[in-house]
# Entry
Amino acid sequence: MKIKLIPNPKKSWAVALSKELADFLTEHNYSVVNKGADTTICIGGDGTILYSNHEHFLEGPVLGIGSETSYICQITLHTWKKELLNILKNKKTVKIMTIKTIINGRTITAINDFVLHSSDYRVVKINVNFSNTTHTFSGDGIILSSAIGTAGYAYSAGGKMLKPEERKISVVPICPYRRTFLPTVLDENAAIGITINRDCAFIVDGIFVQNLKGETISIKKGEDITFFEGVGYYKQG
# Structure
């Protein structure tokens, strides 16, 4: 099996662990490669997986090594030696649904969520269209989340936490005036249109992408990403 290692360069423990892991895998007859991998191991936490997806670095089933508070990562920096080889040998995986949109001809995919947020600290007027109905509210913004992403920003904003493997799209307003629009969970085949009346920031999995200027964007389910089993639970609490 050919394995790509992606450490978070901003975390010294992740860089050090990547070097140790490369030696460990080689000793156990795995090949460590930079491209053409059968699987990818991200080292550094959930954000490392999200960033790697954003940059199209992921190849094959994904395994994450993070801290005890990681949610997507399956194993921790303290337990990897006990668990890694069994996970690779068992090859048990799960499909996780992403969400996508197309802006200026560019397809953008999120594992967790898309966020459209007021860029000047003033409320914005938001039109949300799904099931042939338009809902209008004023607030700070809106979160469109996959099932695995509902454990993050969407949950903090009042949305329902779903099981990671569920095939749903969560729509959660951010501080809606008088709560005129409430968090909603839609079927995977829903087509969602969002229009905001003024400039807003467009954020993908916590990464700022660009400012939007009143465009309507459409959100649908994206391609599945294959993870090794174990995503979607907190290691403590």
About this structure: The first helix runs from residue 12 to 27. The chain has two domains: 2-96, 99-221. Residues 113 and 145 are 4 Å apart (CA to CA). The helical segments are 12-27, 46-54, 80-90, 153-156.
